[in-house]
């Protein structure tokens, strides 16, 4: 007897499941804010170390700066000797490498814990645990870093393919009337955009597959296959929520940017805008990961 395939859930149900997971695992939001401060600290530390000669000069000429001569100081600073010194350039390269490595590590740690906790809650109803967060985060740190490298390779491969197609297209268009070339360019651009969006959505899904027992390249392959085989359902589900978020984000920023020009109160509205934008960005990133887990588990149950 043929096995019956479960009917796909309504989109509203998928969105509700993802939201329930985010609401139940709300401490992840606070931890993500903590990681944001860690990132800020790393930026300040790297700038301080990488530009140490400039920092020394600023400290040595603090009296001049406080006297209102900051502009003349920066104009007279020997920038060429700083940026042509191999020792300074080597230090800057090491600092950049350290920052990229540290940020990649913390991103992988958080993403591993985030996807794992979302997976555990949606499958078994397991609530947040700080011990599980760090144990699962450390468990998936290296695989998540490997997934980052894998997607970088996939992206550059995709970019190379796009450049090759556009190069061949440009050669072909030279032999066609301009109106035919212009007509063909529109659908080609739409197809290219859909492929790019498809890869972006697959990037979200890959983390869900990784914590569900798949390897790095298997997670990449399964996420791309899911976007491809479900005839746009996964892509549309994610893009719809992105569209809603973008409309709200644009409307909010237009209103608060206008309010920021109000004398005195404008500073308050500017601070509110910055805070709300940060909260929205963090909240949306958590919700997108939760939705990716929801879609991945739905596809798994339908097999």
Provide a compact summary of the structure.
With 303 residues, this protein is an all-alpha fold. 85% of the residues lie in helices and 0% in strands. The model has no long low-confidence stretch (mean pLDDT 83).
Description:
There is one protein chain. By secondary structure, this protein is mainly alpha-helical. It has one domain (11-302). Helix content is 85%, strand content 0%. It has 13 helices and no strands. It has helices at residues 11-24, 27-50, 52-60, 62-66, 70-76, 79-83, 86-124, 130-139, 141-173, 178-211, 216-229, 233-259, 265-302. α7 packs across α8. The longest helix is centred in the middle third of the chain and has 39 residues, at 86-124. The protein is globular. It starts with 10 loop residues before the first helix and ends with a helix. The model has no long low-confidence stretch (mean pLDDT 83).
Task: Please tag this protein with its features.
single chain, 303 residues, mainly alpha, 13 helices, globular
Looking at the structure, what is the overall shape?
globular
Number of strands: 0
* Terminal residue distance: 15 Å
Q: Which bin fits the share of residues in helices?
A: over 70%
Q: Based on helices, strands and strand pairing, what is the structural class?
A: mainly alpha
Provide mean pLDDT, rounded: 83
Major sheet summary line: none
Number of helices: 13
